[in-house]
Amino acid sequence: MKLSRIEDVEHECSRSGQFRRFGPEGDDRMRTTQSRRLAGSLGALVLLLTVGCATVSPDVERARGAYNEAASDPELASRAAVELYEAQKSLAQAENAWNLLRDESEAQHRSYLTERKIEIARTAAERKLAEAEIARLTEVRRDFLMDARTREADRARTEAQRRAEEAQARAREAREAQLSAEEALREAEAAREKARKLEAELAEVGARATDRGYVLTLGDVLFDLDKADLKPGALRNLYRLVTFMNLYPDRGVLIEGHTDSLGEDSYNVDLSERRAISMQSFLFENGIARDRVNSKGYGEAFPVASNETQSGRQQNRRVEVLILNPGESPESLSAAPH
Questions:
Q1: DSSP 3-state helix, strand, coil percentages of the chain (rounded to 5)?
Q2: 133-145: string of b/e by CB count within 10 Å (b at 16+)?
Q3: Which helix or strand (DSSP H or E) is residue 296 part of?
């Protein structure tokens, strides 16, 4: 929904005649002229937005510099007008995201898209240049074939063939580069979507972001007083954790048990360890591999509230599940949690 204001700006520009789509018909000169007029209009809009800003985004500045460099190349402007226009639209969206919405994440993303589309424009221009060279050399070759009676014509024909093949190779390379740039765009979008999905699923489990990573905190509702057996009616979050770990098999967890300060230290450490092991065993019983889970009991060593009050002690009686990043081993994280 953050894009709606950017899209509104584009819609108004479209109604006023500043944006027009290029159709498949029409010669290159007309498309180039239309693109430059549109570039002027959109460039003015970007300038007006930029003037009103007290601060600048380094990502937007970098994208703007890349676009200005590309736009100043006459070969690029004439041979990849449509692709360059798409890059200009992405730059305008990045400007709007930063100047109007102050959305740093969206501005970074749109700036990234602008730079990738400029790469696409460059490869498209190189491909068209190679294709034009192919056409020219093919014509040269045809002319020389008409005069095959002399040795010079034969040599020219051979040279034209060689250069045509080289031009074809350059065209293939340019096409492959363009496809690679487009694939990079798709991968960036997919990575963004995967990150959003992960955050939503972690929130569904009940995990919160901390300086140690994502942590799921389960209070003493899982256990009876001085007991380490899981209560059957308090397992909903644990089943959600099992589902999450099945969806992300590259992530492990570290289960940490904690108690309040009542009782002897040795008893509290033993109780916290037994409770952590109970949760560990629950995950094993539900199909989670043993090398993805480790447990540790800290007793009363790391309170999160005062042990002088009943409510504080209740908060300290807890089990925390640290959700590890991909590739991290539970056995490698043996340090204290605070």
A1: 65, 10, 25
A2: bbeebeebbeebe
A3: strand 293-297
pTM: 0.44
35 contacts 79 by C-beta, under 8 angstroms:
no
Q: Quick: pLDDT tens for 143-159.
A: 787 776 778 878 888 89
Phi and psi angles of residue 286, each rounded to the nearest 5 degrees, phi first: -105, 25
Confidence class of residue 28 from pLDDT cuts 50, 70 and 90?
Answer: low
For residue 245, the tally of other CB atoms under 10 A from its CB is 22
Question: What's at 324, amino acid-wise?
Answer: L
Facing residues of 295 across strands?
Answer: 255
Residue 285: both structure tokens together: 């019983």
pLDDT for the residue numbered 50? 46
List, in order of start, the domains of the chain with CATH numbers: 4-198 (no CATH), 206-332 (3.30.1330.60)
Mean pLDDT of 305-324: 91
> Rounded to a whole number, what is the distance in angstroms from the first to the last CA of the chain?
38
Report how far apart, in Å, the C-alpha atoms of 236 and of each of 204, 231, 281, 294 are.
12, 11, 16, 21
Q: What is the DSSP letter of 107?
A: H
**Half-sphere exposure for 193 (CA within 13 Å, toward CB):** 6
**Structural tokens at position 243:** 């589902």
Amino acid identity at 49: L
Do 87 and 114 form a contact (C-beta atoms < 8 A)?
Answer: yes
**Mean of the per-residue pLDDT values of the chain:** 80
In Å, what is the CA distance from 38 to each residue of 23, 52, 76, 81, 128? 15, 22, 16, 10, 22
The pLDDT score that the predictor gives to residue 157 is 87
Give me the long-range contacts of 3-9 (CB less than 8 A, separation at least 24). Answer: 3/93, 3/106, 5/96, 5/100, 5/101, 6/93, 6/96, 6/97, 6/100, 6/101, 9/45, 9/92, 9/96, 9/100
